[in-house]
Write a structure and sequence with these properties.
43% helix; Aspartate Aminotransferase, domain 1; 2 domains; binds pyridoxal-5'-phosphate; 17 helices; alpha/beta; Aspartate Aminotransferase, domain 2; 7-stranded mixed beta sheet; 4-stranded mixed beta sheet; 454 residues
Length: 454
């Protein structure tokens, strides 16, 4: 057993962390999470934290599920690994594919596996371009995405994504990807513009990009139904139906990235079902296994899958761990828990509406809160200096970091992204957990306001 200090020293010496300022990390010292149970995580000092982020938007069934450990153990003993290349497969990826076809939106019945959301988006990008090549239209290869989108950290994921800081460090993006405005009314709606009007205008940006490139050159549009890492940006209701209509009009494929919104978070298996969107591909990962194993599944619509099969010839793409038998066994057990415990219905009918009610009633009127928005069990709290004008505190997101640090010190794990605090808790949260979270967030907001207005 190593002490906290020893682990921190080794961490500083050898471990480069994702999305981390290492100078800052060295100064602050790494927190070591040692165990977790239900909705709580615990660090090496014994602090208990309510996990408002379900890890990284993934631990939907909560921590400490022995069933999932047992599913992995059983599969590892029986057959730890075999691939699904050269006309082989193991059984669990097949069973999982069948299950996914059953819960996927209509018109989607095929699955391509990877180990992460990023890999899955790489697959999606290559697959839609391959589709159009098979259709005899190889020039139809431009993908339209949105500013501030997050689609992963691989070169393709970063290129599809719209985060400027990531692009700046990329040193050469995948070509033929263009970015249009995001449907973020809080900052981008014009004075007097209704949410509905703004949603139509944001969708029109997609049409403008299609027309500028020429519809014969545009393969697909990609978007998160609700932008997650970009700040839980919930589009106006008018947005997705209009984007869908535009894609159909110009024969542009619709790719949804449901890496965060998939598997219950919005009160349906997929946000496309909550929002009535009919995509051609759905990228999923994270909560597919509730994070207990790395696994992603690209759900592929029948139009693309049929062309792939009918055309014959190899799709030169795949990963060693595509359809990993252990990860798929865990996913099957995880989906079974979600179903058996009625977690999706609970989010839809009970905890989702209660989450909105409590956050709105208790936090939306706070002195440094400009807006609270939720969808299912996703939430965002906009931190502002002036509630009327929506002016932000100086320092580009520094204020939200102050809130976050107070939240964590007070036992509430949540994330700051830009000037927005975000929440994406496990779906096992009850009304009591939501009340507890609201208490802790309120305290953090009070303490942060006192600091920020000093
Ligand atoms: N797409 C979205 C919407 C995500 O939120 C993420 C990760 O947060 C990814 C893709 C990338 O997934 P991964 O980190 O598993 O590669």
């Amino acid at each position: 057993n190593f002490s906290l200090k020893q682990l921190q020293t080794m961490d500083a010496a050898h471990h480069l962390h994702p999305f981390t300022d290492h100078k800052d990390l060295r100064e602050a010292g790494t927190r070591i999470i040692t165990r977790a149970d239900g909705p709580f995580i615990y660090d090496s000092e014994g602090h208990e934290l309510l996990d408002g982020m379900a890890g990284l938007w993934c631990v939907n069934v909560g921590y400490g599920r022995k069933e999932l450990a047992e599913a992995a153990y059983r599969q590892m003993q029986e057959l730890p690994y075999y691939n699904s290349f050269f006309r082989c497969t193991t059984a669990t990826p097949v069973l999982l594919a069948q299950k996914l076809a059953q819960i996927a939106p209509e018109g989607i019945s095929q699955v391509f596996y990877g180990s992460s959301g990023s890999e899955s988006n790489d697959t999606a990008l290559r697959l839609v371009r391959h589709y159009w090549a098979l259709e005899g239209k190889p020039q139809k290869n431009i993908i339209i995405s949105r500013h501030n989108a997050y689609h992963g950290s691989t070169v393709a994921g970063t290129s599809l994504g719209g985060m400027s800081a990531m692009h700046d460090q990329l040193g050469g993006a995948v070509p033929n990807i263009v970015h249009v405005m995001m449907p973020y009314a809080f900052e981008l709606a014009m004075p007097g513009e209704s949410d509905h009007e703004f949603g139509i205008r944001a969708a029109k940006a997609v049409e403008d990009a299609i027309l500028e490139a020429g519809p014969d050159n545009v393969a697909a549009f990609i978007g998160e139904p609700i932008m997650g890492a970009g700040g839980v940006k919930i589009p106006p209701e008018s947005y997705w139906p209009e984007v869908q209509r535009i894609c159909r009009q110009y024969d542009v494929l619709l790719m949804l990235d449901e890496v965060i919104t998939g598997y219950g978070r919005t009160g349906a298996w997929f946000a496309s079902q909550s929002m009535g969107i009919q995509p051609d591909t759905i990228t999923t990962a994270k909560a597919l296994t509730s994070g207990y194993q790395p696994l992603s599944a690209l759900l592929v619509g029948d139009r693309i899958a049929a062309r792939l099969v009918e055309s014959g010839g190899e799709f030169y793409h795949g990963y060693t761990y595509s359809g990993h038998p252990v990860a798929c066994a865990v996913a099957l057990a995880n989906l079974e828990i979600i179903e058996r415990e009625g977690l999706i219905e609970r989010v839809r009918d009970d905890t989702g509406p209660y989450f909105r009610q409590v956050l709105t009633e208790r936090l939306a009127g706070h002195g440094i809160v400009g807006q609270v928005r939720t969808f299912g069990l996703m939430g965002a709290i906009e931190i502002v200096k002036d509630r009327q004008t929506r002016e932000r505190f100086p320092g580009d997101g520094a204020a939200a970091v102050v809130v976050r640090d107070h939240a964590i010190a007070g036992g509430m794990m949540m994330r700051a992204t830009g000037d927005t605090m975000i929440l994406s808790p496990p779906l096992i949260w009850t009304r009591e957990t939501i009340d507890m979270a609201a208490d802790r967030i309120l305290r953090a907001l009070d303490l942060a306001e006192a600091d920020l207005r000093k």
